[in-house]
Each structure stands twice: as C-alpha cells, then as structure tokens.
Amino acid sequence: MAETIFQKIINGEIPASKVYETDTVLAFLDINPVHKGHTLVIPKKPIKDIHTLSDIAAGDLMRAIVVVADAVKKATGAPGINIISNNGSEAGQEVFHLHFHIIPRFNKTEFGRLPHTKYESDEEQVKIAQQIADMVKSQYKESE
Ligand code: AMP
C-alpha cells in the first residue's frame, strides 16, 4: 500500500492535533472539519479499509471510537454525533487508510440524510437478506 497522509501522521512526519493514542489506535482532529471537533479515529497499522481489518484490530478500534465519540460529544456540547466510515472511492473514501469520522452534530436538518429507497417487493427484500446472510455465514466458516 502506498504511504498515505495518515501514515505520515502516525510516523510523526507531519503534525496533527492528536486527542487519543494507544499502541494500536490514533485519533486526531480532521483538518477540514464538518464542525469544529470533528475527529478521525484510525488503526496504526496500514489497513486500507474495513474489508481488511482483523477481528483483534476491530475490537481495539471500536473501543477507541466509543471513547472518542463520548469525549467529542462532551467537549463540543453537541447533542448528537455521526460516526461515518467511507470505504472505497465510490463511497467517498479519499484517504486509503481506514478511518472513522466522529462528527459533532447540532441540528438534524443542516445536511439531511442519505436518500433512502424502497424494495420493489417482499420477495426482493427476502432475497437480498438471504444473500447477505449466506455471505456472513461463509465468512465465519472461513475464519474458523
Ligand atoms: P475520507 O473522504 O473519508 O477519505 O476522509 C478523509 C479525511 O481526511 C477528510 O475529511 C480530510 O479533511 C481529512 N484529512 C486529510 N488530510 C488530513 C490531515 N493532514 N490531517 C487531518 N485530517 C486530514
């Protein structure tokens, strides 16, 4: 994986406003915040996206997300928090080192939500749920 801007932050080659750090996880302010206090939580290992995250790294990362989300909420006084991770350029990922955005939110109408749609039929909904459930089952088999 080519070295990303976040790898440079981990290595101390460029500065960042760090707010939390463990052996495996780092959190720092996003340089272009949606709102002030917008924080990024990343694994220190060069993991590209959620699809290549191990179970152990996922545990460390989720614990850090919970800690930082709580701290951002209290420090900014935001009544709400969005936790977002863009995975793949089609989903808006620009830095290819896995990260979770912790975004303080003050008003639900300021950006709206992603537009939602409906399933064409109950059958379609059942079929898609089955496809995903089968995939989950096969992944657990693979890691046993
Ligand atoms: P994404 O579109 O999910 O890949 O988000 C990448 C995020 O990284 C953006 O919100 C950027 O503002 C942020 N970002 C890029 N460079 C830096 C940097 N040097 N320090 C902090 N945040 C950064």
Can you walk me through this structure?
With 144 residues, the chain is α+β, with helices and mostly antiparallel strands. The chain is built from three helices and five strands; from the N terminus they run H-E-E-E-H-E-E-H. The chain has a single domain (16-105, 117-143), classed as HIT family, subunit A (2-Layer Sandwich). The protein has a five-stranded antiparallel β-sheet, covered by helices on one side. The chain starts with a helix and ends with a helix. The structure holds adenosine monophosphate. Adenosine monophosphate binds at residues 5, 16, 30-32, 40, 86, 92-95.
* Termini gap: 27 Å
Give the SSE string. HEEEHEEH
CATH superfamily: HIT-like
Q: Strand order of the main beta sheet, please?
A: 1-2-3-5-4
Q: What is the CATH architecture annotation?
A: 2-Layer Sandwich
How many domains comprise the coordinates?
A: 1
Fold-level CATH name? HIT family, subunit A
Please identify the oligomeric state: single chain
Q: Strand percentage, roughly?
A: 15-25%
Q: Which stretches are low in confidence, meaning pLDDT under 50 for 5 or more residues running?
A: none
